[in-house]
Amino acid sequence: xxxxxxxxxxxxxxxxxxxxxxxxxxxxxxxxxxxxxxxxxxxxxxxxxxxxxxxxxxxxxxxxxxxxxxxxxxxxxxxxxxxxxxxxxxxxxxxxxxxxxxxxxxxxxxxxxxxxxxxxxxxxxxxxxxxxxxxxxxxxxxxxxxxxxxxxxxxxxxxxxxxxxxxxxxxxxxxxxxxxxxxxxxxxxxxxxxxxxxxxxxxxxxxxxxxxxxxxxxxxxxxxxxxxxxxxxxxxxxxxxxxxxxxxxxxxxxxxxxxxxxxxxxxxxxxxxxxxxxxxxxxxxxxxxxxxxxxxxxxxxxxxxxxxxxxxxxxxxxxxxxxxxxxxxxxxxxxxxxxxxxxxxxxxxxxxxxxxxxxxxxxxxxxxxxxxxxxxxxxxxxxxxxxxxxxxxxxxxxxxxxxxxxxxxxxxxxxxxxxxxxxxxxxxxxxxxxxxxxxxxxxxxxxxxxxxxxxxxxxxxxxxxxxxxxxxxxxxxxxxxxxxxxxxxxxxxxxxxxxxxxxxxxxxxx
Length: 510
Ligand code: NAD
Description:
The protein has about 500 residues and is an alpha/beta fold. It is about 35% helix and about 20% strand. Helix 4 packs parallel to helix 5 and helix 5 crosses helix 14. The protein starts with 5 loop residues before the first strand and ends in a 6-residue tail after the last strand. The relative contact order is 0.13. The structure holds nicotinamide-adenine-dinucleotide.
């Protein structure tokens, strides 16, 4: 349940108030004019769910000191002992699946099935990371000299700073933190400012697991608290998931510091290629799911549908028909397909993207940005409502449109007709600065293989919606979408050092 309490941070095994600000409940503004507290709000109703203290540089400093102090003892534990704390959390995530899924939906507005899926994905990652404690960590290799042992050993890097977005408020923090902790690092985490309640609950779970003081620390707050983490010399690795704007800034800053590493996952301008060989039932289903689920607010959501001219008219008619009818509504209702946008500022940003498409000459096919009377559920008038926006553009006439290049992160999607073979489709598909996720819909294996091999993507799907993640696979992008992998198996590279060990087993000193 949401409470009246003003929640603080979790530092060094204690719940703490913001440093230097006195009791947060008595004041709401600091001397420098910045708000000292902030609220978690339900995007579907506008109601306040809980109030939180806004972290300062002093809070980050205290959290980093605690993490730094705890590192030596934590690294001495075996992998398997470290994983025990994570197994506790795994069971709690499973036992509280329904309850936590509802909290995710209340705080970030995702449809309830998606809220629960966020929790499922979190336990998948925790299971993977904790299970990985019993897997080999390193390589034994042949030596050039018979009497020598040669192998690679991994060791933790130290303090890992984790900065996460709001759209997967339970799963993504565990993508970062589970593997960092099992590998023997300590963590300072800043949840997204839109989803501090999920942050509070994760910190409570960590506390309940009995994890040693200082191994896990959480500071609530905004981007300034995030920057205080990334900029500090005590941080050895930064794991970031969020917008390209912030990710590029972090990758640039941290990448220039010797000895420090950043792995950043960012946004995309994702597309689906629908060829003349496509099964149109699959094509329509995939495009609808990828463009409108979670209100288009997934890093893998599609905003470009590249469709062959042989099937264009039929696909367009069917896709537009579904987009006109999609149920937008209370995300807690099981039959709602699309919930609200995260916050009023984001509604405004989506409006600007829709306007840009219009200004650039797009033909608007569906404009449900402003919902009609009766579409907004009773009692939800203050929610951040938006509906689908679908348009078509003539790419052959102008291949330089900003609306085809910039991520909107909303239910905003372009139809682009193409003539020719899969090479032409790939040319259009790859014409963005990003390379996160994309799909191809075709019954011809040669076209599927061409897409797999030549689409500029980290995540490629065939005859599937362009959504979903498997923790056994890498999750990341190319071009401006990714800079290292902050999750799963590949994140081990970012949170460990490698030692190449060669040992002489004989008395020969050659
Ligand atoms: P965001 O970049 O605005 O914020 C992400 C986090 O960074 C937040 O915790 C924020 O407080 C913090 N932050 C902001 N400025 C900072 C700074 N200067 N230094 C350090 N930290 C700072 O992103 P968002 O709006 O929360 O999330 C949406 C974006 O995330 C979209 O672009 C989406 O595509 C992307 N995303 C990517 C993935 C992926 O795996 N590739 C997954 C989910 C979301």
